[in-house]
Amino acid sequence: MSKVYLAKADVDYGEQSYEAAKKLLTKANFKVKNKKVLIKPNLVTDDSSSSGITADVSICKAILDKLDNCEVTIGNDFDNFENTNYSNLEKEYNCKLVAFDKLAEKDIIFKQVKTPFEFDKIPMARQVVEADYIISLAKLKCHALCQVTLSLKNMFGCVPTRAHRIRIHPSIRYSLMDILQVRYPDFGIIDGIIGNQVEEVSSHPINSSILLASHDPLALDIIGTRCMGINEDEIEFLKRAKKFYNFNPKKIEVIGEKVENVAKPFNREYGFATKARYAVEKLRSKILNIV
Question: Can you give the pLDDT at residue 47?
Answer without folding.
Answer: 94
